[in-house]
Design brief:
It is built from seven helices and 13 strands. By secondary structure, it is of the alpha/beta class.
Length: 270
Amino acid sequence: MRILVTNDDGIQSPGITALAHALTALGEVWVVAPDRERTAVAHAVTLHKPLRVHHVAPRTYTVNGTPVDCVNLALLKVMPKPPAIVVSGINKGVNLGDDVMYSGTVSAAMEGTILGVPSLAVSQEGQDTFRFEVGATYAARVARLVVEHGLPDETLLNVNIPDRTSSKMRGVRITCLSRRRFHNPIIEKIDPHGRPYYWIAGQRVSWSRSKDADHEAVEDGYVSITPIRLDITHHGVVDQFRAWEPLIARGAGNGRVSRSSRRPMKQVGR
């Protein structure tokens, strides 16, 4: 059985080394990862420059591209046959809630899912140091179950490991994505020439969607496993919007909108 391992922290990250080592107990591990850190590139694909693949060790390759590029090249060019599973990580820091929209770690698993391979993303809570050996142990356990039982169509798993030793871990929870709030998400500074520049940063200060939330599980000392679907259509409101079809088709309501005509959409529970 072949296993593809990738990440967004780059080939030099100790997280990918720990993950690849743990997965050797399951099968033949292939590593195809970015040649440098590619954090927060989301589902970016390189279209405007050539991609180069370098063989750096047995079944280990680097790519001068994004995590999604790595998965594409691994599955379609590098590996002799498609893998049984794609495992992305272990990321330095958690990918909870809305983080999955920006995460290169999660996007690599999404790309594996798009290409028809069961996939999971693994992230490790931490600050200056990370307990990658703990995360790798749980990643291997989840990967084994995925290989044995498969995943539903168009579904990947997002796994987040608390910053605890194995003996302090409280268990595992199947969770839902949270919604995060940031304090001062845009930081403005002035350069030596007096011109403003900006950092997209800020501190996470609050969460919402607390029922079965992934952030609560990690805070409570549980491994969080969130199933994510590729289809992000909000099926619950499709029928509501179908009422707009004839209005848009015939160009009705092109004038100024009056306050009395503004009707709120029916709220559909998440």
